[in-house]
Specification:
Layout (H helix, E strand, L loop, with lengths): L14 H21 L1 H38 L2 E5 L5 H12 L4 E7 L1 H11 L3 H7 L7 E6 L3 H9 L4 E5 L2 H43 L1 H9 L4 H44 L11 H30 L4
Helix pairs in contact: 1-9, 2-7, 2-9, 7-9, 7-10, 9-10
């Protein structure tokens, strides 16, 4: 260890000395990592995977929720009018509904158009020919602008309306599953966050063991625990920063490979949906959180070691 570090009075040398020791501690931690490249790389990668798993699940759930909301906004409400409502009356209703603030668009499907579509999409042509009169009612296909459930309830109360069909139930069930998924992600984040702390703690413990003689000398010279602990805290924080950046890199790589297949899936819903990752503020927060986990792991291990080895005063 550098002779400067062995000076137990260094922490009394003023603010400049304090800053110098922090910089030295940071450089020393980087040097320790460089001297053990394989072990350091494995620690960073394992911690990165532990961070990437819950983060990936959270961002996936956020994208599913956003995609479901996007599909929900463009999902149409099918309003079947009563059989006695004429096509002219259906057209008047369509004009009235287009003026509503909660309606984006209304398309009228006449009984004749409905019958043609039924012939084209099914094999019921001969059966339909035997029916004689067209049994299909007029259909208004409504695109909601706001709350689909509220709009559907409002349309159902109109006298000319017979049946309103929409898929609010699937949205409610999806919201339930998304909430459950977020709970799983948070539990997983807590468990893997603890794992990240232990991973860094184990790496720092190995570094402590390789410097135990120098630590003993510092303790006998009267160096404070904070003075001895500082280089190892920086080592844990550097592990955390590099692991956080690696986790973001892994998620970016996963996003790159998932984007083409997701684009094909979104196209089947008539959407140009694209995955969204973490913005700059969120990414910075993740890196800082990873650094905090590394700092915490190093602090716990170093504190335990110093308490056990502190000479009796």
């Amino acid at each position: 260890m550098n002779s400067t570090v062995l000076d137990p009075q260094l922490h009394h040398g003023g603010f400049r000395t304090w800053v110098d020791h922090h910089l030295f501690s940071l450089v020393r931690s980087l040097g320790n990592m460089v001297r053990k490249p394989i072990g350091s790389l494995l620690t960073i990668l394992v911690m990165a995977i532990a961070l990437a798993l819950p983060l990936g699940l959270l961002v996936a759930l956020a994208n599913v929720d956003r995609f479901a909301g996007n599909v929900q906004q463009s999902r149409e409400i099918s309003v079947f009018l009563k059989p006695e409502v004429s096509v002219a009356q259906a057209g008047n209703l369509a004009d009235q509904w287009r003026a509503r603030p909660d309606v984006a668009n209304v398309d009228l499907v006449t009984p004749e158009q409905g019958l043609q579509d039924l012939r084209a999409t099914t094999s019921l042509g001969p059966t339909l020919d035997n029916l004689g009169n067209n049994p299909l009612p007029s259909l208004l296909v409504v695109t909601p602008r706001g709350d689909e459930n509220r709009l559907a309830d409002s349309l159902q109360s109109i006298a000319e309306v017979d049946v309103v069909q929409h898929d609010q139930a699937w949205r409610d069930r999806l919201n339930g599953w998304l909430g459950f998924g977020r709970t799983i992600a948070l539990v997983l984040a807590a468990l893997l966050g603890l794992g990240a702390v232990l991973i860094v703690g184990n790496a720092v413990r190995a570094d402590i063991q390789s410097h135990r003689e120098e630590i003993g000398v510092l303790q006998h010279l009267g160096a404070t625990d904070g003075f001895i602990r500082r280089p190892f805290l920086y080592l844990g924080a550097v592990f955390g920063v590099l692991a956080g950046l690696s986790a973001l890199g892994l998620l970016t790589l996963a996003n790159y490979y998932l984007t083409p297949s997701l684009a094909q899936l979104a196209a089947t819903y008539g959407s140009r949906f694209a995955l969204q990752g973490f913005n700059f503020v969120q990414a910075t927060g993740i890196v800082l959180l990873a650094a905090l986990l590394g700092w915490l792991g190093a602090g716990l291990v170093t504190g335990h070691y110093l308490r056990d080895t502190r000479p009796n005063q």
